[in-house]
Amino acid sequence: MIFDIKMIQGVYEALPDKINRITQVLKRPLTLTEKILYTHLSKDEELKDYKRGEDYVNFAPDRVAMQDATAQMALLQLMNSGRKRVAVPSTVHCDHLIQAYKSAKEDLNTAEITNKEVYDFLTEVSNKFGIGFWKPGAGIIHQVVLENYAFPGGMMIGTDSHTPNAGGLGMIAIGVGGADAVDVMAGMPWELKMPRIIGVKLTGKLSGWASAKDVILKLAGILTVKGGTNAIIEYFGEGVHSLSATGKATICNMGAEVGATTSIFPYDEKSAEYLIATDRKEVADAIKAVRQYLQADTEVELSPEKYYDRVIEINLSELEPYINGPFTPDAANPISEFAKVSAEKGYPQKMEVGLIGSCTNSSYEDMTRAASIVKDAQEKGIKVKAQFIINPGSEQVRYTSERDGILDVFEKAGATIMANACGPCIGQWKRETDNPDRPNSIVTSFNRNFAKRNDGNPNTHAFVASPELVAALTIAGDLSFNPMTDPLLNDKGEKVMLKEPVGAELPNKGFGVDDLGYIEPVADGSHIEVNIAPDSQRLQVLHPFAAWDGKDITALPLLIKAKGKCTTDHISMAGPWLRFRGHLDNISDNMLIGAVNAFNDKTNSVKNPFTGEFEAVPQLAREFKSKGLGSVVVAEENYGEGSSREHAAMEPRFLNVKAIIVKSFARIHETNLKKQGMLALTFINKEDYDKVREDDKISILGLSDFRPGRNLTIELLHSDGEKDTFEVAHTYNHLQIEWFKAGSALNYMKN
Ligand code: SF4
């Protein structure tokens, strides 16, 4: 099946004219990143040379993808947008909520029972709004997108950090929060700070045990977890053409681990082969006329330092396999040094579980390369020593791997084939262990290895490596095993070496599948009723927030004056709260529970002005709300940094907080607050933060003349009768002021 071919052809038809205009205005050769970004400027956005790392720019992405955990709140908001159908092709993928425990079939059955109301809701809303729906078991969002939707030169956003996977097929694909997805699905522009561009030149060719995964594991060591922040990583050089499309996707996927906005590869023969193998020859055909626009200009490749903000070179011929970890993906260890590092640091030497899967490494090529190692071990009479778990990336990969005898190889080695889903990668793993307090080591082909991520156990040392290396270490059961130098004992007691991995980039007999697991939405979903049980604990209909009453805000109590860092995690924690992501009332019980109260240095302990007692922040906010009172939150610098999480803006709005007054905002969160109809204000004199006292009554004056560039006034009435008055700034433009007046951006759009 080929999806949205008309839209894709339209992008290519418009490409030559657009690129010519861009070149005329920018008057310089273009990187691939710039070609895609500038051809996706929102229609009202001026075409000019935007400053990288500084200017905020509105874009018009071609499509949206959502995974089942984040889709819930996004779709609940979309239901309030007044739209009948999404403005751009969009999809929902049921992959995060399936727990890996026994086997694919049993776990899928369990997930369908435990998550029934969420799945039913997602199915109905998708059908109503024209969104493609991928059922539980269809596969992991990014693998499914790569196989079906990613197209070179396109631009997409996805409500998941590893959306950049599609960069392997030449698409600018960026992970965002649900509110951004709603904007794009509702036909609004989507804002991004014009990213810096890091050029990574690949030379040489991979060989032996080195794999595409090792490129990004090495790069993670160079850039560290923050080195890619606000940057797009663009790969170039002759080395890129030796990598398969799925190998490139692996590299782009893990670009998220260095904080990159996204990563991208140019279009080449491998991309064409992958498009054709995945039934998209029409896309490959349409590209023939525009191929030169799907790579950086020649001048950029010749003088990369002139056009990229930073250039890094990696010689694939010299690359050795890496094992990164534990606890952070940028702890990069080439395998030749790992045994020494491991002994020095005292990592648990017994390798207890090997896991292959995740959106990072679950392609057909990954499966075949890992299986070649297992098969070689079987033929040499070597037993597998550790537990072995495989999660195929999609039903297409699973079906084809089964047909081609690959799953059989794993199963004969004692591996459990789990569902085509995220599973252990996102902590959805019911791991059975004899003693959770014992430090232990596992090796995965996933992308993240933070403490507790896979099995919730802080004693688990998780390392990430290529699937072939995971297979080798699982066979050896020894964390320090180096298959390039170390022999293993076979069942006759002989020392034997494992052969180097071999695999197939694409299946010789082509991909096969019985049922992709896709449900096409009906052409007109306007008649569809979306049912949410009123007593549901996981889903709740969103009621539009009330419009502004036209008056100044007067004499509000302070909810909390937060001290120090206040990220979106402090404002709306993840972890156990994930299950309430579709229920605003329930999840609001985590509002600001991580923020430190400046008056007592405690978290989640604020003074109730009516009783003088200290209580939880959400509890006090609910009391204010029940009395018909709003409240105010005061905080310090960079309030709301971290993941773009709309819950962090929706929860205060829901619990009747009227304004957040801070020394500075993280820009994305500031915009999210504006979208929800909140007042996001900043101290002009940062010392005014110190004037706010615990028992103050706070008024916000000047709203009747709320306009861009005009400050508002804060009046603090202290409990001793004294007053402090000062001005605060805001960054609302005309449109955003309309959002405030309407009660939210969605209300405004609907009106
Ligand atoms: S496999 Fe892991 S990294 Fe990929 S989407 Fe699922 S949870 Fe995220």
Characterization of the model:
The protein has 751 residues and is an alpha/beta fold. The chain has three domains: 5-317, Aconitase, domain 3, CATH 3.30.499.10; 320-496, Aconitase, domain 3 (2-Layer Sandwich); 553-750, Aconitase, domain 4, CATH 3.20.19.10. Helices cover 31% and strands 18% of the residues. It is built from 25 helices and 31 strands. The strands form eight sheets. Strands 22-26-27-28-31-30-29 form a seven-stranded mixed β-barrel. Strands 6-5-2-3-4-21 form a six-stranded mixed sheet, with helices on both faces. Helix 8 links the parallel strand 8 (196-203) and strand 9. Helix 3 crosses helix 5, helix 15 packs across helix 17 and helix 15 packs parallel to helix 18. The protein is globular. The site of iron/sulfur cluster has 14 residues, from helix 6. Residues 34-477 form the Aconitase/3-isopropylmalate dehydratase large subunit alpha/beta/alpha domain. Pathway: Carbohydrate metabolism; tricarboxylic acid cycle; isocitrate from oxaloacetate: step 2/2. It holds the Pfam family Aconitase.
